[in-house]
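During the no-cost extension, the postdoctoral fellow (Dr. R.K.) reprocessed legacy sequence entries with the updated structure-token encoder. One reprocessed record is reproduced below for audit purposes.
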Amino acid sequence: MNQEQITQALRLTNNDLVTKLSEEMTTKNLLAVQLTEAQQTIANLQADIEELTQQLDEATKPAEEIINKKENNHDT
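Re-encoded structure tokens follow.
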């Protein structure tokens, strides 16, 4: 191989590496965006669970108190 062929081969290798790096960076950035979106979805779902749990506690608390009072009255 002469110098020109070696130089051309190195240019092609360099171009391939630049292309591959670009693809990898794009993939990494896409995954980072997807991860951020997933984390936000998880945070929203956790907030929904907390709110629904509070609502359930509030909705069932009076019923539990009524049942407990009835049970206490029957025990006496």
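Residues 47 and 53 are 10 Å apart (CA to CA). The radius of gyration is 32 Å. The remaining legacy entries will be reprocessed before the final report is submitted.
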